[in-house]
Specification:
mainly alpha, 2 strands, 385 residues, two-stranded parallel sheet, 13 helices
């Protein structure tokens, strides 16, 4: 009797994910075998955060090289665990369309992305399990629910990754997949700060209500801007405007906002089956650009106000604001080069991490704290607190 579902590709991919994760885990065991439990978990979380950042960048590389359908099924590649086993099918597709969506190079790019994702999943599973075990032994004063949330979230992001393939690069799904990866970065950053607090490596800094509100508002604005940027990229609207600061030589080009933000539809097609107009692509691009005019000063203002309370985060925010401006301009004036596009995606991911870091390292100070001698400057006097 034949099995209804062939699980062998998924099981082989899980095994490959374990192999990918063994390297970082072995490094951690060597470096941290004599460290305290909180220190070991802080190291594991930092390493997982770094590899997740790399995964987000490699996901962008997969999309930007048009490799998202390099293997048009999921989780394997033509039901194989690697392109080696799908050589005949890939060769046949490549022979028909040498520059089409399925080639040997694109298949390997797509599958390497999946292997990295599986490896990150194994690391997050290890982190969640270790935190629960140490918590039950009463040797770790950190809630295990944060790594548990990260584990549940990475499974959800993986599901959107599967839908990205099976729904043929549906723009809303691809955008949600990107945003899901950035949420995972924020969750891991939150955990990393918690473990550092548990080992006594850092403490939260009290800031005034005005500065705290500014920080939260900047965090929300960056997320909105990232969503708009993801919508531009997943709809291939980056080159809808190729001049700056105008678009098509005009300050207000022809735009179709209704069609631009018609969310639930296939790539390149409207919900009623027609082709997406160039005016709609222009609207997607220009709205992202207009939002940048508001978000960039907000980032710089937040960096300036944080300079006393959280100087490292303030410097990082200022540098990333400049990075995003330059990389965003390069995408327009240089015709969307791969390096510029990756730099812009990496900058967005870094902004999410730095702002999460700043939020987790700060807290709203009480009035008595702000009135204490010497504390006012440390809580951001420039914010008017």
């Amino acid at each position: 009797m034949n099995a209804l579902v062939d699980l062998s590709p998924a099981l082989r991919l899980m095994l490959l994910g374990l192999v990918v994760a063994l390297g970082p885990l072995a490094w951690l065991w060597v470096r941290g075998r004599k460290a305290a439990p909180a220190r070991r978990l802080a190291m594991l979380t930092g390493l997982t955060l770094f590899l997740t950042f790399d995964l987000v960048l490699f996901g962008a590389f997969t999309r930007l090289t048009d490799s998202g359908l390099g293997c048009p099924d999921w989780p394997g590649c033509y039901a194989s665990a690697s392109p080696f086993g799908a050589h005949a099918q890939i060769s046949a597709e490549q022979a028909q369309m040498p520059t089409g969506p399925v080639t040997h190079t694109k298949a390997w790019i797509e599958m390497v992305h999946r292997y990295l994702a599986m490896g990150v999943g194994v690391l997050i599973l290890t982190l969640a399990t270790a935190t629960w075990v140490l918590r039950r032994r009463h040797v770790l004063p950190v809630s295990p629910w944060w790594p548990t949330a990260s584990l549940a979230w990475v499974c959800l992001v993986g599901a959107f990754g599967a839908l990205t393939v099976t729904m043929k690069l549906f723009p809303a799904i691809v955008t949600l997949h990107l945003l899901g990866g950035l949420v995972l970065l924020a969750l891991l950053c939150r955990q990393a700060v918690e473990y550092r607090h548990a080992e006594g490596a850092s403490v939260r800094v009290g800031v005034g209500a005005g500065l705290r509100t500014l920080l939260v508002a900047t965090f929300a604005a960056v997320w909105l801007q990232v969503a708009l940027g993801g919508w531009v990229s997943t709809n291939y609207a980056v080159l809808a405007c190729t001049d700056f600061p105008t678009c098509h030589g005009r300050w207000w080009p022809e735009m179709d906002f209704a069609q631009a933000f018609d969310i639930w539809r296939p790539l390149g097609v409207t919900s009623d089956g027609g082709n997406v107009s160039f005016a709609a692509l222009t609207a997607k691009h220009y709205v992202h650009r207009l939002a940048a005019y508001a978000v960039l000063p907000l980032l710089l203002a937040t960096a300036w106000q944080l300079r006393a309370a959280l100087p490292r985060q303030a410097r990082a925010l200022a540098a990333l604001a400049a990075w995003q401006l330059l990389s965003g301009l390069s995408n327009v004036v240089l015709g969307w080069p791969l390096l510029g596009a990756l730099a812009h995606t990496g900058g967005a991911a870094a902004l999410v991490v730095v702002l999460t870091w700043a939020l987790c390292e700060s807290r709203a100070a009480r009035g008595s704290e702000l009135a204490a001698p010497g504390l006012r400057m440390a809580t951001g006097r420039g914010a008017g607190t």
